[in-house]
Write a structure and sequence with these properties.
about 60 residues, mainly alpha, 6506_t:CDS:1
């Protein structure tokens, strides 16, 4: 899950991964935080794409 699309994700998430590797005792906590961050970002970007396509449709009409 964590390796998917990391190159396109912001540096902040890469820092989270480094922290995840350093603090293995808090692995689950950081993992959950990272996954939730990724999900939030994907939802936001999906909504943004959806809104942009709606704007384009309105402009075309």
């Amino acid at each position: 899950i964590m390796k998917l699309g990391l190159s396109s994700e912001p540096i902040l998430l890469k820092k989270e991964l480094v922290l995840l590797r350093k603090k293995k005792e808090k692995k689950n906590e950081f993992g959950l935080r990272l996954i939730s961050l990724l999900m939030i970002m994907k939802i936001k970007s999906w909504r943004l794409v959806e809104e942009l396509s709606l704007v384009r449709k309105i402009k075309n009409e």
